[in-house]
Amino acid sequence: MLGPLDLMIPLLVLGVALATMPFTVVTCVLTRQLSNLTSWSRFKRAWFKQVYMWFGPASKPLIAPKVGPLLSVAYGTVVEVGPAGGTWMSELAEAACASSGRIKKIYGVEPNTLFHPELIKAAKSFGLSDIYEPVAAYAQDLEQKGIPKGSIDTIVTVHVLCSVGPPSMQESIAKVLYDYLKPGGQWLVYEHVTSKHAPIKIWQKLNNILWSRLLDGCDITRSTEEIIRNAGEWESETLGPDPKEGYFESLPHTIGRLVKKI
């Protein structure tokens, strides 16, 4: 918690995102991926990859003390939604090694295929090649990739549900993810949410005008905690505000574990 300085964090991230745009253009030219420059949608994917490859590792030390313990309980067949370049691969590897065979399979559900080489590289680096599989799909399309509903033991979402489209789609995807869980399966959550304080909420909305456009559609003004909680019936849940975040936090989070009703 930085007090009033927390208000500056979104501006810092937006500045980095803007600075990364010309770098993305140069990278596309040097790597001869010129097709990424002929389509705005392709360019946005290439641009976001460059932003995230900086932002993911840079922000990880700040949130790893919270996310690490959360992911340590992952088990069985795991779906990580939106892993990007594999920021949390090491934590999943630690969970897999903590008890031999506890994690049977990990699906990295990442529709931006520009990240897939990074995911494969990270899986190999952390000894997960045998059980890790990148999946080029959106969460709602997993059945088409051979992953049946009711088959998943652990779902992981870290900084991803803010980017899945309008609120109605976010609600729909939350319910779909619930359906993929086995009875007794768990959902591990660390997500952006709207502030509970009116002045900060206004500041979030002002930042979100650019934020959602520069950061792959991420919307930092959503009631994601409520949406996840209402996705289905839960045997137990510990979802709630990050207790270490203060009043001025402009990128507040919800964190916790939900267990699907048996």
Mean pLDDT: 93
Determine the fraction of residues in helical runs and give it as a percent range.
40-55%
Task: Supply the helix-strand structural class.
Answer: alpha/beta
Name the helix and strand elements from N-terminus to C-terminus, one letter apiece.
HHEHEHEEHEHHEEE
Major beta sheet summary: 8 strands, mixed
**Tally of extended strands?**
8
Please give a structural write-up:
The chain is an alpha/beta fold. It has a single domain (60-260), classed as Vaccinia Virus protein VP39 (Rossmann fold), CATH 3.40.50.150. It has 7 helices and 8 strands; from the N terminus they run ααβαβαββαβααβββ. Strands 1, 2, 3, 4, 5, 6, 7 and 8 form an 8-stranded mixed beta sheet that branches. Helix 3 links the parallel strand 1 (76-81) and strand 2. Helix 1 packs parallel to helix 6 (198-214). It starts with 8 loop residues before the first helix and ends with a strand. 39% of the residues are buried.
Write the layout of secondary structure elements.
Blueprint: H1 9-30, H2 40-71, E1 76-81, H3 89-98, E2 103-109, H4 116-125, E3 132-135, E4 152-158, H5 167-180, E5 181-192, H6 198-214, H7 224-229, E6 234-237, E7 240-241, E8 253-260
Parallel strand pairs: 1-2, 1-4, 2-3, 4-5
Antiparallel strand pairs: 5-8, 6-8, 7-8
Helix pairs in contact: 1-2, 1-6
